[in-house]
Amino acid sequence: MKKKKFLRLPISIGLFSGLSILTSCSLIDSVLNTGNTKENPPDVQVTPPIIIKPKPPHSKPNIEKFNPKEPNEESKNNETLIPIQESEVYLTPGLSNENKEKVLNRYNGVSISDYSEIKEYKRKDDYYLEYIDPYTNIKFRDFSYHQDKDGSRRYLLDREGLLNLAQEFKRKIPFGTEVFDLDSININDFTVINQNANGLYLPEFKKIFINGSIFAEKDFSSYEIIGGLMPTIFHEYMHHWATTYAETGILDDEKVNIDNGDDINKRQTTLIYYNPSTTPENTNHTHGSQQFWNAYFASKFYKLLNYDFNKKSYIEPSTLYKLRINSLSPEENYPRNLLHMKLSLNDIWRLSNEFQTPNYLFNNPPANLEMPYSPSGAFTLSTPRLKYNFSLTELIPREYTKYGYESYFSINDENKSLDNEIEEKATINWFGTRFITLDKKGRKIKVFSPSGNAEDWSKTYLNNFDSPTRQYWFQDGVGINPNDGTRKDNAIAFPNSVFDISGFRYIENKNNKKVKAKLPSAKSKNRSLEFYKLFLETMGYGKTISQIYYENKVTPVDKNNVKYDRSAANNIKFSGYLKANEEVSGIVLKGKNGIYGSSKFKYLSTFSFFGHKNYDEGAKLYEIDENKYYLTSDRQKQIENRYYPADAGYSENYVSYITNDYITVNDDDDTEIYLWKDINNDNIATDDELLLDKKITLPTQRAVSSQRSTNVSLYDFNKFIVENNDNKTIIRILNKRTES
Length: 740
What we know:
This protein is of the alpha+beta class. It has three domains: about 5-245, no CATH class; about 255-405 and about 450-525, no CATH class; about 530-735, no CATH class. The chain contains 15 helices and 39 strands. The strands form eleven sheets. Strands 23, 26, 27, 28, 34, 35, 36, 37, 38 and 39 form a ten-stranded antiparallel sheet that branches. It has an eight-stranded mixed sheet with strand order 1-11-12-10-7-6-5-3, with helices on one face. The protein has a four-stranded antiparallel sheet with strand order 2-20-19-18. Helix 4 packs across helix 10. It is globular, with a radius of gyration of 26 Å. It starts with a strand and ends in a 7-residue tail after the last strand. InterPro entries: MYPU_1760-like (IPR054786). Keywords: Signal.
């Protein structure tokens, strides 16, 4: 069973930790079991599932809220949240002010009137709170990590924090209609996610699991906890996005290599080999599970981020000295074991994504060599772990986190880690979380767990992200440092950024001499808009039908296996985009014996998938003035830094839709698809209501299909594809399921 994992271990300063592989495949029953409401749980002592050291019950954590109001009989909870403003979501152009208000009210809506309506459930020995957001339909769950002797349970977020998390998801996570195919986000469900992983996405179940133990019992506010969780949620959601749109190559389509797939008018497949559990023993052999990626997306992604660049970077020794590379003095030799000195970006790609290791990289570098990517040397990668970190599966969320994540903490804020260490207080900021704890022998140790955005950027810039005094943006070799007026040094270790990296340098041979060189403008200029457009194209933005989704019903067979409901796989939902002025009620399926299925559309006048013009420096979300909340000026800058479809050249005013219902597709013949206008409003589709003249557009470079790379080898349920043939739009079966 395939898993998408986000492994980011807390590193004790001066100590090294290895990666641990998740074992959630043996926990299928816990993944599927939804639990029962428990109003009055028994008074029992529960041992925490991981090592969290609870404080005495009378020691209450800091419960600073997003808003000081408490719910009561007169107020609704949507009044206690910071509303998402018009500037924070893309509204269909042309809406009247009245309609804008209605759309925003719906987007900000909540499903409860009082926090007590968020119920507590029991699943075997576990308890959790659950809130279902009425807009996204995602279940947000917070599992109790400890129970006191009096029976009261401790939750990381609790009811108010869970509601705020659902709100912040809509504010900060880029999503389209694929959001309705995500079942749940589960915080601290330690029967599924282990203590060594920050996040986990299970595509078979459409569920995200987040480990928030690092933030428990630290006296962090609700704002700080959510700000700490969001980079991981962002990362895991982008796994969901990629599984829906990008990792969707069709087996029978033309196969092209990564260099030759960037023709938007051709539907092609690129094979990628994924092996997250590589060990030193097998690192130099053929490896990996075969994945089928949309060739256009994979090729453009690969080139825009310069993974085709095969030269090693060069950083001046004087700059390394300033960065305190292992106490290097200007006279010492260049440290050859730094990751960027051992491998080029293209070397890393080939090691991580190709079936056969190239001969020149065979045991070069040795599998057991730890290559630092932080000046302190505390953060390293060996070849086996590198294959996981730089697999295309992992690169999608890591690169889009760099590109699109909006931190709740400013990189320019004073780093108070050293001051807090004196008082043994935990610190959370743009770079991550620091605290002091005890090891197994009772000795105090300092722990640093980097934020996802900080660690991902550390694979581009050689920077002291793990330093307790680190502040301000990275040294990119362009312009002046605003904090002290000095010239910026070039500390670009790898050119994998779509923002301006014109300061990047590398060494090449000219006339038998090694000279410093720079990238051509096409590879170093700001390419952020082209990057954003690639993601919109891959989503099928502006196409009548952009993607289809199968009903996901699975039951456990044993502790390691699940069985898919064959009949449910024929139940399909459609999503796409229509012009705002078009009058369409829904979609109709018509077979040889006439109309047999239909569903009306759920229309959305909001679009939440955004990009960025430049890198994000983070921002505190709000300020308080006379008990009223205002977005900070830094937050306003964050919002102004966003791209939306109009910026990418989409001039039409589109609304997105998803069908209200699943439609059961016949698998015995090709079915024609029509748009439908319910003229007499009786919810019954008839031939005279079919919009025969409405052309249905589809993505040209990607299949609209219920096949995913994660289910391609499963033959116990049907996969369907939508195609335009002979001026008709049909849905047909890709494979005929085998009876067993």
